[in-house]
Thymidine kinase (Motilimonas cestriensis), 193 residues
Amino acid sequence: MAQLYFYYSTMNAGKSTSLLQSAYNYYERGLNSQIFTAAIDDRNQVGKVSSRIGLSQTAHIFDDATDIFQQVSALHQSRKIDCLLVDESQFLSKAQVQQLTKVVDDLKIPTLCYGLRTDFVGELFAGSHYLLAWADKLIELKTICHCGRKANMVIRVNDEGEVLTQGEQIQIGGNDKYISVCRKHYNQQQYQK
């Protein structure tokens, strides 16, 4: 039975690496997986999922206007899809998460979503909010804080390394802009001013 999975974490927990490994596992068995990623994520190349360890693969892109169910349905009609993989799923809208539930329930395609749970001020992203509410399986991918504890928060820093506590929710960046920390160090950084 197909299910909707949400693999969530903070930055640098290996979400994209895990997604690419899953895609390879399907490929190795002669099965067809399709990858989607957010058009907004232009850190490496739009339409490409890349991991910090050097793996990458081309992907379909989604933005706010994309009807994911419609796109997946068309792809599925031309060649059976055995698994759908969605990177940067925090950027999905409520409607797009609903569309993914239809991919699972109506098209019977297992769907694995990978994304951040919260932003740099500890608030849920829209896609994460609805995936946490509607996914069949929730799996936390873990990484560690500089102190050795589990990192479950992320802080945003400016070019001088100063912690930012305000700003737009979405600002694309990697290790140059974000640091994964435990809740204790997050609170120390956010509320020390």
